[in-house]
Amino acid sequence: MSLPRYKITMLALSLGVASAFVGCSSNPSKKEVVDKGPQSSEQVYFEKAQKSLDRNQYTDAVKSLEALDTYYPTGRYTQQAQLELLYAKFKQKDYEGTIALAERFIRLNPQHPNVDYAYYVRGVANMEMNYDSLIRYTSLQQSHRDVSYVKVAYQNFVDLIRRFPSSKYSVDAAQRMKFIGQELAESEMNAARFNIQRKAWLAAAERAQWVIEHYPQTPQTPEALATLAYSYQKLGDNSTAQQYIEILKLNYPNLVKSNGEVNLRAARKEGSWVNRATLGLLGRESKTVEVKEEVKSEAQQRSLTNRLSFGLLDKSETESTSQPEAVVTPVVPAENNKPSWTNRLSFGLLDKPEATNSSEDDAAN
Fold it and tell me: Would you tell me how many other CB atoms lie within 10 Å of the CB of residue 248?
């Protein structure tokens, strides 16, 4: 039985196209990338990387530092180049690569005098991984979403402070831990609010209890106490609920109504439905309950332009972000007073060069 003519034609075309693709893939003129080995000495690679870092050319710096690390794994500049590579990768916002390099440096150089820097950068990179999105420019809270990276960052900073309590980076790490603690507490309370909405009183109480036990110094503590009292009231455990109500009366009397019930709405201080529907752009914003509420001045109120631009435009002079800054812009040094590698690796925070005053020198001469 012979095939129809059109089927024979289609088969011939298919075989022809397949042969053409095979021929292109096996083109002998295509050059293969071959590693030709080091093209410069160790010192030349390192000096090129330093010049690239001084010019903020981080891509070129990474190439030179990676070549130095590859071809001279036991060289004179290898360990310092690995630390410089941490900084360059971080400036490129390659946080995953930064974390991998930091962990490798910690594993291979546990006794290095600057290994505390690797611990610090690992925590900062994990922290930035959690906020590497447009959410940082809106009034939305990252704590209401995935907080897995900040949990890892918190543990990274704990390791840093435990191993190097007198490190140059311990103070900043402690401040970041305080901020992360507030984020984790808000994440737990957000889950507790959801559990209350679906009337899962025991689950809500467990979330609030976790905040009281692990994050007692956070702004979420008043709401956590109110949630515990409210949940135990709903569960019928009035004796336990009354204990928390007495605590609220002593510390946050505005959260207890005149009839003895918990004012959970006042504890939350949620934004209006317009504020939530517009992702925080319009309407009444949410506020955190404090012992003494402070009224913001007109200069501190966010303008409509600031809200509509997600905080990018029309910033007030007193406006500051609650999240610690990951990078501090270094001060431009004098021509003959270049920053040390410690100054560069700490984003300009440490080992600052002494500024020279040319006018004073001229006057003295």
Answer: 21
Three-point CA angle 236, 239, 243, nearest 5°: 125
- Give the CA-trace dihedral at 242, 246, 251, 257, to 10 degrees: 70
Q: Are 284 and 302 in contact (CB under 8 A)?
A: no
Tell me the pLDDT tens digit for each residue of 302-319.
555 555 554 545 555 434
Domains of the chain, residue spans: 185-280
How far is residue 145's CA from residue 354's CA, in Å, rounded to a whole number? 44
Long-range contacts of 351-356 (CB under 8 A, 24+ apart): 355/331
H-assigned helices in 254-332: 264-268, 273-277, 304-308
Helices (H), 92-220: 95-108, 115-130, 148-163, 170-197, 201-214
Which string of DSSP letters, residue by residue, matches 57-106? -HHHHHHHHHHHHHH-TTSSSHHHHHHHHHHHHHHTT-HHHHHHHHHHHH
Q: In the CATH hierarchy, which fold is given to the domain comprising 185-280?
A: 1.25.40
CA–CA dist 364, 345 (Å, integer): 35
The SS3 of residue 256 is strand
The residue whose two tokens read 């007198």 is: 166
Q: pLDDT of 178-225, one tens digit each?
A: 999 999 999 999 999 999 999 999 999 999 999 999 988 888 999 999
Please give the Cα distance from 45 to 198 (Å, whole number). 62
CB 286 within 8 A of CB 302: no
Nearby residues of 184 by Cβ (< 8 Å), 6 or more positions away: 143, 147, 150, 151, 154, 214, 215
Q: What is the pTM of this model?
A: 0.67
